[in-house]
UniProtKB/TrEMBL annotation:
<keyword id="KW-0489">Methyltransferase</keyword>
<dbReference type="GO" id="GO:0008757">
    <property type="term" value="F:S-adenosylmethionine-dependent methyltransferase activity"/>
</dbReference>
<dbReference type="Pfam" id="PF13489">
    <property type="entry name" value="Methyltransf_23"/>
</dbReference>
<protein>
    <recommendedName>
        <fullName>tRNA N(3)-methylcytidine methyltransferase</fullName>
        <ecNumber>2.1.1.-</ecNumber>
    </recommendedName>
</protein>
<comment type="function">
    <text>S-adenosyl-L-methionine-dependent methyltransferase.</text>
</comment>
<dbReference type="InterPro" id="IPR026113">
    <property type="entry name" value="METTL2/6/8-like"/>
</dbReference>
<dbReference type="GO" id="GO:0008173">
    <property type="term" value="F:RNA methyltransferase activity"/>
</dbReference>
<comment type="similarity">
    <text>Belongs to the methyltransferase superfamily. METL family.</text>
</comment>
<dbReference type="InterPro" id="IPR029063">
    <property type="entry name" value="SAM-dependent_MTases_sf"/>
</dbReference>
<dbReference type="GO" id="GO:0032259">
    <property type="term" value="P:methylation"/>
</dbReference>
<keyword id="KW-0808">Transferase</keyword>
Length: 314
């Protein structure tokens, strides 16, 4: 599968920004936010629990739509060579995993999520593809990067001494079963580090104050010169504008009725977070796409942030 040209400009973000800022009905989104007024400050474990419950309800059906645009947006996943290793953080039900596996037979994909139900479904989808190499190259494991450091076996040897990593059992279990793909104790504990880490609509799901630590963990498992590929909700996305005032729990941060949250990024916020974590900015821009709701006959303006960041080469 070859990656086609990536398209991201149905409209200009600055025009949308001007329109929102001049519309009185959206003014509450732009007001300063006093953190002490928020009742949504919770222990980190509760944040993860909300997403586990979400996936237990929604890991199949309409929530499983393959992100085929991924290889257009990140052609590096197609062109990388034999032995390349990718870690997908927050893989959910496999909607990103399958395009990556299809796009490049040289890739070994490690995928983690806090939800065992979502990972089980992802494994089912990979198995249902009936492509044997997919099954051998796909290694899911239950893990929440917002709570813990990545297991030692993801790190390259030079990084191990200075990384945030810590030892984990070689068999990571959830609900009484082992999710395959984790190196055994008998094998080398170091896989040589990762060529790519993907964060696809994952960072926005954790509170803003937890993001710096989470990004430093991603930085630590990459090889020198490795890339983090980022896509997430952008400021003034249609989804943000639909949130009502009582769902606002921070500046650009909202909580749904089921307890899951979303943050909507400006380019400045993304740049600051990644540079502070040690990354070099390679690409960063808004992706502004008009999406047609055929049932209602309405055009929806979606805004995402597209980014590529590199760990400095040695």
């Amino acid at each position: 599968m070859e990656a086609e040209e990536y398209f991201s400009k149905d409209f200009e973000w600055e025009d949308l920004k001007s329109e929102i800022e001049n519309d009185p009905s959206f003014q509450y989104h732009l007001l300063p936010f006093d953190p002490s007024s928020s009742s949504a400050i919770r222990p980190p474990e509760e944040e993860s629990n909300a997403w586990r419950k979400f996936h237990s309800r929604h890991y199949t059906g309409k929530f499983f739509k393959e992100r085929r645009y991924l290889l257009k947006e990140f052609p590096e996943l197609v062109s990388c060579g034999k032995g390349s290793r990718v870690l997908e953080v927050g893989c959910g039900n496999g909607s990103t995993a399958l395009p990556i596996l299809r796009g490049n037979e040289n890739v070994t994909l490690y995928a983690c999520d806090c939800s065992s139900e979502a990972l089980e479904y992802a494994r089912e989808m990979v198995d249902a593809s009936n492509v044997a190499s997919f099954q051998h190259r796909f290694h899911p494991f239950v893990f929440d990067f917002s709570l813990s450091s990545f297991p030692d076996w993801l790190f390259c040897s030079p990084c191990r001494k200075t990384s945030l990593g810590q030892s984990f059992p070689s068999d990571i279990k959830e609900a009484g079963r082992t999710l395959t793909g984790v190196p055994s104790k008998e094998t080398s504990c170091c896989l040589g580090g990762l060529d790519f880490v993907t964060l696809i609509f994952t960072l926005s799901a954790i509170p803003l104050h937890m993001m710096p630590s989470a990004l430093m963990k991603c930085f630590s498992v990459l090889k020198p010169g490795g890339f983090l590929l980022f896509r997430d909700y952008g400021l003034f996305d249609m989804t943000m504008l639909r949130f009502e005032l009582d769902k606002r729990v921070g500046f650009c941060e909202y909580m749904r009725s089921d307890g899951t949250r979303s943050y909507f990024f400006s380019l400045e916020t993304v740049r600051d977070l990644f540079v502070r974590a040690g990354f070099i900015e390679v690409e960063l821009d808004y992706c502004c796409i008009k999406s047609l709701n055929r049932k209602k006959g309405k055009s929806m303006r979606r805004v995402w942030v597209h980014g590529k960041f590199q760990k400095p080469p040695l």
